[in-house]
Amino acid sequence: MLLILALGVSACLPGVRVVRPEEELSPLPPPTVAPMAHNVAIMGIDFDPPLSADAELQNGVTLLVAVANQGLSMEPVVNVTARLLDPLLAGIGDDLQRETVLLRDLAPAEVRIVRLATVNALPRRNHYQLVIEIAPLAGEEDLRDNVQTYDVLIGEAD
Question: What are phi and psi of 102, to 5 degrees?
């Protein structure tokens, strides 16, 4: 559980912030529901090495994503996709980087860390957008926790 909490809060050093846009954050607690047969979720992200203004993205950073099976069924294949975007070119340009990782045999109540390819040789920006998505499973009804979007802000806070 401590690992999930650590991943939920960005481990970035001063000069780099990773934030979820406010419109995605809900002020209401999640509803209490009966367990579902199929339900996977993104629990949080982290970076290796931790992001900092000194250790720039161009030098190589690996994205770590915590994925949990909150359903009652063994999931034979879970597709996790990460996309790094330039928000100024959203909708008109290609992804700066895109990778899909397949998780095999994710057991109920299991949390697994997905390690995505090291990002390097990126164009220098002050703002990137990171989109993490788990492809919906057959029979999965609640997809609200399958996609998370983060703003990666390089530089001092305003």
Answer: -100, 125
